[in-house]
Amino acid sequence: MSTQEKVLEEVLEKTTEQPNNEIVLYNDDVNTFDHVIETLIYTCEHTPLQAEQCALLVHYTGKCTVKTGNYDDLVPRCSKLLEEGLSAEII
Predict the structure, then answer these.
(1) Adaptor protein ClpS core domain: which residues (predicted)?
(2) What is the pTM of this model?
(3) Is the pLDDT of residue 80 over 60?
């Protein structure tokens, strides 16, 4: 095994150690665009433009990943989205 192969193998192992989780927001017929946008800004620290784009994606495609990261960081954010009446889950 060459040195280059060993280095590549080590890099691949390091990148797979901490998989990112995602909060996926789902479409519903209850919440307004304004409510979804405001909630994403507050809960997921989105910019207004980013929150608006996510709201549009959810509306037209049925779902959108709104936040990625460490599971422990995502749990309270997802809980807040659920408390606000949005449909979301961590995957």
Answers:
(1) 17-83
(2) 0.80
(3) yes
